[in-house]
Amino acid sequence: MMSTEISVVVPCYNEADNVLPLVNALHAALEGRAWEVIFVDDNSPDGTIKAVRQLAAQDPHVRGLLRIGRKGLSSAVIEGILASSAPIVAVMDGDLQHDEACLPAMIEALKTGDFDVAVASRHVEGGDSAGLANKWRHFLSEQGIRIAKSLSVPVNDPMSGFFAVQREWFEAIAPSLTGRGFKILLETLLAAPKPVRVKEVPMVFRDRLHGESKLGPQVMIQFGIMILENVMKKPLFKRIALISSSGIVGTLAYKIYKIKNDSQL
């Protein structure tokens, strides 16, 4: 029996309709490899964990992790990675917007030992963010890239939710992560020892077929807090330079207020 080559962690909430299509897509993308998928469900009222368990009873590739009393994408990802059994762990959304066909290239990049992280990127040649229809998500992506550049994060798409890591590398960083918010890749890159070796694989971001986006003002505020917490870990002179040069506090506060009020019109 082959040892598991890759674990795919899928944080999810109200994604019952997407469980079977995603598993079928992973079977096609990872044919010939030893893999598992771990659905980390925050006690979804739509029965997501029930759909996972029904499938797991028939398919040994499928696992489910039910969280009660805890919510949040970043903390779900951390728990899923720490519960994985493979040396390489990928993280992807459960809404079918991430292109699973990127996985083989991401796996091979990490297997060389030359990279710590492989990112499915919308912002390299061959990538596209066409499925990013929500104005909240457009704003967060644009501001996240701007902020990440001011913080010298070595990736073109730091806001990607689809990435893979060496599990041992991530485990060493995990104790320093807050687990708040939903952009765990950016927080991981900020917390990691430098230099971080990153491989970006082009991805076309697809339209959501089922369910609704979980993005809202509260999530964006959590994102801002996470950024500020990481900035505050810097030496004093660098903190002042980063905040003043990127306008982190003012930009986020103004945009959150404006978009929230626009959405109520």
Overview of the molecule:
- The protein is an alpha/beta fold.
- It contains ten helices and seven strands.
- It has helices at residues 19-29, 48-56, 73-82, 103-111, 135-150, 167-173, 184-191, 217-232, 236-246, 248-263, and strands at residues 6-12, 35-41, 62-66, 88-91, 117-121, 163-166, 198-202.
- A seven-stranded mixed β-sheet has the order 3-2-1-4-6-5-7, sandwiched between helices.
- The termini are far apart.
- The model is unreliable at 236-246 (pLDDT under 50).
Main attributes?
265 residues, alpha/beta, seven-stranded mixed beta sheet, 7 strands, globular
Rg value: 18 Å
Strand order of the largest sheet: 3-2-1-4-6-5-7
Cα distance, first to last residue? 59 Å
Order of helices and strands: EHEHEHEHEHEHHEHHH
Layout: helices, strands, pairs:
Elements (H helix, E strand, L loop, with lengths): L5 E7 L6 H11 L5 E7 L6 H9 L5 E5 L6 H10 L5 E4 L11 H9 L5 E5 L13 H16 L12 E4 H7 L10 H8 L6 E5 L14 H16 L3 H11 L1 H16 L2
Helix pairs in contact: 5-10, 8-10
What's this, in brief?
By secondary structure, the protein is an alpha/beta fold.
